[in-house]
Amino acid sequence: MFKRKIEEKLERWLASLPIKRKALMLRGARQVGKTTVIDAFLKKHFEEIITINFKFEKEKKKLFAGDVDAETLLERLRAAYPSASFDPRKMAFFFDEIQDCNGARAALKPLMEKTDFVIACSGSLLGIAAYNDEGSKEVSVGFEYDLTMHSMDFEEFLWAKGERKEAIDAIRLSFAQKKSLDPYLHAHFSEAFREYLCLGGMPEVIDAYLKTKDLRLAHESKSSILANYRDDFAKHLDENGREVIKNSLLAKINRVYDSLPGQLASERRRFVLSHLGSNASKESYFDAIEWLLGAGIVKRCQNLSAIQQPLIAYPREGYFKLYFQDVGLLLGALPFYVTSALYNGTDEVGIYKGAIYENFVADTLNKNDLNLFYYRKDTGLEIDFVSEIRGKVVLIEVKSTNGDTKAAKTVLEDANNPAKRCIKITSSNLGDDGVYLTIPHYMAFLLDEEAQV
Fold it and tell me: CB-based burial of residue 125 (10 Å sphere; 0-12 exposed, 13-18 middle, 19+ buried)?
C-alpha cells in the first residue's frame, strides 16, 4: 500500500471522537484508494473489523431495514457475525459503498449516540442526487465526519518511488524561501514530474508503472479505470434496491464525457454545449453534467465576471470548463501516442499539450481544496486560473515550457482588482521578483503551503 496524505486526516478524526462522536464519511471518485486506506488504517488501530461492502453484499442491507434502535441493530449484527467479539475497544465497523444502503447511513446516528463503536464509511457516488430511491431516510446530520479523498499528488508519487525525504524537503525549502533549487535536483524532479504527468495519480496506474516501467501498460490501466467509470453512468437504485440505468440520461452523460478531450483541446478550453449538438441546451444537459460532477469524475472551473473577493460570489453564469479529476485520466482518454510523445518531448502531442498541463494544474488546485476559477473577457484576455490562497487573490498562468504573461500584466496593472501577484507555472527553476513568482511544475503541489505565495 502506498503512503497517502489522507492518513493524517484519519488520525485527526480518530483523535476527535472523545470530543464529538462521528462516523467517518470518506468521499471520492472510484479507485482513488478509499477502501485500501480505510482498511489499512482500521487494521492499524483495531484487532477486528467488520467490513460490509453494500455494492457487492446486497443481502446485508436487510440488517438495516426498518426504523430500528441501536440495540436492535447490534442484535442483528451479532447474529450475522457470531464469531466477532463486539468489544468496541478492539473492534470497528467499515461500511463500504454506503450510498447503496440508505438504512446503514441513517443508522449512524443511533449507533454513534448509543454505542462506543468506531465506524468508518466510504462512498463513490455519494454526491449524486437521488442515487438511491430505496426507502428514503434521513442522513445522520451532525454525526458524519466528512472527508474527501483524491488521487495521488506529485509528492505522494515521489513517496511511492522511494524518494528520500531530504530531497523532497529541498523542494519545500526552495518554495518557502523563494530561492531556486539546486540545478541537479531541478533536473531530477523535472524528470520525475514528466513521469507523473504521463501517469496521473490513480494508485492502480502508478503501481503498474512502478512494477514494470511500462508506460503502455500504465495507459491500459487508465483505460480500464475509465471503462469502469463508464459502466456506472446513469446508474441508480430503484425503490427495490435494484441497479437500474436511466437510458435517456445515459446517452447525455456519454455525449458530455466523450466530448471532454476535444473541448479541452479547443483554443478556449471552455465547455460549449453546442458542440454536443444543435439542440443542446443547459436545461437538457444539466443532469448529465451534474452526474459527472457528483461522481467526482470531472471538476468544474467557472469563469469569473470580475476579479473581486470573495471569488465564489462572482461566477459568470453558463461559462465554465470541465477538467478530468485526474490528469492521467485525460491522457487515458486519448490515444497512447499522445502519452508517448509527452514523455519523449516530441511534437505529436499537438493540440492536447496545453490542455494536459492545464488539467494538471486544475487537478493540483483541487487536491489543495482550492476552488477552480478562470477569468476571460470578451476581448480575448484570459487568465488560466484565479485563486484565493491564504486570503489573497492570486493569478495563475500555466505554460508547458515557458511563455509570456501579457494577460496577467494587464490585470495586475488594473488598480480596481485585488490581485497583486501572479504565479507562473513553467518548466523553469523558481524565480521571484515580488510580483511574478515563477515555479517549476513539480512545485505546484505546494501552492497552499503555509509559506505565503
Answer: buried
CA-CA distance, 284 to 112, in Å (whole number)?
42
Q: What gap in Å lies between CA 43 and CA 91, rounded to an integer? A: 10
Alpha carbons 448 and 329: distance in angstroms, whole number = 24
**pTM of full prediction above 0.85:** yes
Q: Which residues of 262-294 are buried (b: 16+ CB within 10 A; e: fewer)?
A: ebbbeeebbbebeebeeebeeeebebbbebbbb
CATH number of 6-148: 3.40.50.300
Distance between CA atoms of residues 254 and 261, nearest Å: 13
Domain spans of the chain, in order of start: 6-148, 154-446
Closest to 25 measured CA to CA, from 139, 132, 126, 122:
122
Convert the pLDDT of each residue in 171-224 to its tens digit.
Answer: 999 999 999 999 999 999 999 999 999 999 999 999 999 999 999 999 999 999
For 197-206, the pLDDT digits (tens) are 999 999 999 9
pLDDT digits (tens, 9 = 90+) for 301-330: 999 999 999 999 999 998 999 999 999 999
